Amino acid sequence: DSGVTQTPKHLITATGQRVTLRCSPRSGDLSVYWYQQSLDQGLQFLIQYYNGEERAKGNILERFSAQQFPDLHSELNLSSLELGDSALYFCASSVGSSGYTGELFFGEGSRLTVL
Amino acid sequence: QKEVEQDPGPLSVPEGAIVSLNCTYSNSAFQYFMWYRQYSRKGPELLMYTYSSGNKEDGRFTAQVDKSSKYISLFIRDSQPSDSATYLCATYTGGFKTIFGAGTRLFVKA
To answer: Is the pLDDT reported for residue A108 higher than 60?
Structure first.
C-alpha cells in the first residue's frame, strides 16, 4: 500500500459528460501529480501541484483541470468527455520540494471508460 | 523524438532466465534514473533508483546506467513468474517532473 488513495476506482460515463477524480496523497507529502495511462501512449504527465499551487504542466487538455485543496487532497476534472479520454488516471505524491528525488508514490488509479 | 524510449514488448521468458530490459533517453542533463514495476490493475511502484552512471544491485535486480550512450538497463536474474509485470524506466532532471518510458510488458512462464 503506497498510502495514496484514489476514488473512484472505476467510472463509466457517456461522451460529453463531466467527471471528477479525487486523490489523497501520502501523509506528509505536499506534491501531487496526475498521470494518464493508455495502452498506446504509456504514462503521460498531466499536471503537478505543490502545497496548493500549480507547479508544472504536461500534456493536459484544456478540457481538463485540476486543483489541490488546503488539506492537500487533489481533484482532476475532466469535461466534454470524448471516447479517447478512456484511460487509467493515476495520482502520485512525493515529498516536498527540498527533498524531491524523482521518486513518486502512486495510487491504484481510476479507470475511466467513456461510451 | 520522445525523451525516453522503451520497447513495449511483450517479452516472454522461461522461469529462471536472465531478463534484460532497456531504455534510451535523449537529454544528457538527466541525472536520476529509476525503474518502476507495475502489476496488472495496480499503480507503478519504485523498484530501483540510480544516480548518474554505474551499476546498482538489489537482490536479483541490477540497474545499469551508461550516460555516454544515454542507455539504461534493468537486469533480472533467476526470473520468477511473480516478476511478470510491466517495467517502466523513468528519469528526472529537476522541475519536479518525472518522465516515463512506455513500459515493457514481461511474462515469465513457469
So the answer is: yes
Query: Cα–Cα distance between A60 and B54 in angstroms, integer?
Result: 35
Q: What's the rounded mean pLDDT across residues A50-74? A: 94
Cβ pair A92, A26 in contact under 8 A: no
Nearest beta carbon to residue A31 from set B34, B96, B99: B96
Place of cell 540497474: B63
Q: Which residues contact B108 (CB under 8 A, 6 or more apart)?
A: B13, B14, B15, B17, B19, B79, B80, B81, B82, B83, B84
Q: Are B109 and B15 in contact (CB under 8 A)?
A: yes
The pLDDT value given to residue A97: 57
Rounded Cα distance between B25 and B99, Å, is: 10
Task: Tell me which of A43, A59, A91 to substitute to probe the interface with B (most B C-beta atoms closer than 10 Å).
Answer: A43
- Residue A101: the pLDDT is 67
